[in-house]
Amino acid sequence: MKQRIDKLLGIQYPIIQGGMAWVSDASLAAAVSNAGGLGVIAAGNAPASWVKEQIIALKEICDKPFGVNVMLLSPFADEIAQLVVELEVPVVFTGAGNPRKYIDSWKEAGIKILPVVANKALAQMMQKMGADGVVAEGSEAGGHIGELGTLVLVPMIVDAVDIPVVAAGGICDARTTVAAFALGADGVQVGTRFILAEECTAHDNYKSRVIRAKDVDSRVTGRVTGHPVRLLRNNLTRELAKLEYSENGAEKIEEIGAGSLRIAVVEGDLKEGSFMAGQCACRMDKVEPAKDIISNIFDHDMVKQALKLAQDGTKT
Ligand code: TUI
Question: Which of 197, 234, 245, 306 is exposed most, by the fewest CB atoms within 10 A?
Answer without folding.
Answer: 245
